[in-house]
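User: Second chain of the day. Same drill as before.
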Amino acid sequence: MAAVSYSMKELAEQLELKFSGNGDFLITHVCGLDSLQVGGLAYLTSPDGLTSVPTPAGMSRHVGTTVDEINSSKVALVVSPGVQHPEHNLIYADDPLAAHVEATKLFHPAEPFIPDVSMKSGIHPSAVVSKSAKLGKNVKIGPNVVIYDGVNIGENTILHAGVVIMSEVVIGADCTFFPNTVVREKCEIGNRVILQSGVVIGSDGHGYFQRGGVNLKIPQVGTVCIEDDVEVGACTTIDRARFRTTVIKRGSKLDNQVQIAHNVSVGEQSLISAQTAIGGSVKAGHHLIMGGQSGIRDNVIVGNNVTAVARAVITANTQDNEVLGGMPGRPVNQWRQLQSLINRLGELFERVRKLESRKDSSQ
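Assistant: Same format as last time:
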């Protein structure tokens, strides 16, 4: 894909924002403040960040600088409306991060889905599509995709190479499934859902019972429902319920390598970080936040707006708005105090040893 660039004036017009500085300045890429290069567009959440970008006048006072070094005339910044500086190229936005995200989409448009020029129908010749499957308008199906009987796919959905959709699955509109995603039988996927490579939706839950010392499988006959605007990271697995439905509610975002067990319900707009595991039959409220390598024990009810910091394990029901750390999970300030005490155990042990030594010598 050809490189994309905009003059500052053109970009501001595309974003419907105002600017100050050199309107002809050519912006060639988006970046962060820590990776500014000539032609870059970064953003500031605080005006203090301007001090990290030298101005031409400021650079001239430093011995050994060259005209090729980065300065404010060679980069642009998205800032809040109140920020003013005559030597900076500035684009003004009430929400600089959101505006920078929109700019990123302009500089990095979605890759066109053209795996084979012979795909006049939108279906790659190597794909296997059941005659009973119903495909909406403008559905794109890549190489080696397999679609079983009774599948229903909404318009503008894209299935990349190697995706497998098993029988009676329902998929909404404007979804994107990346290579080697698997959606098992009878699961339901909403609109605008993104499944990254290697995701498995509807795998069997971990259900077994023992008789005579032998593990015997319990059939998992429920389904999974992924609601609208959910994104699931690479190699994440979401197990089907034993009888009813495992649910990931609207707007939630799951990172890579997350495990969601059977019968779980994850509330709206949740954020779940990598290597998190949620045990069976957990019911979590909206805006759950799980740090990396954290977990929730099975059969726990978690309130709304609950946060588990990295490596925390929630082992009991919670109230709303709790922030938990450690294992077992406890209020994060209490957990930090305990960690501080643990870090002083060597010092405390030595003090006790000296006190005991004094007592023994005085006897």
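Residues 5 and 28 are 4 Å apart (CA to CA).

User: Great, on to the next one.
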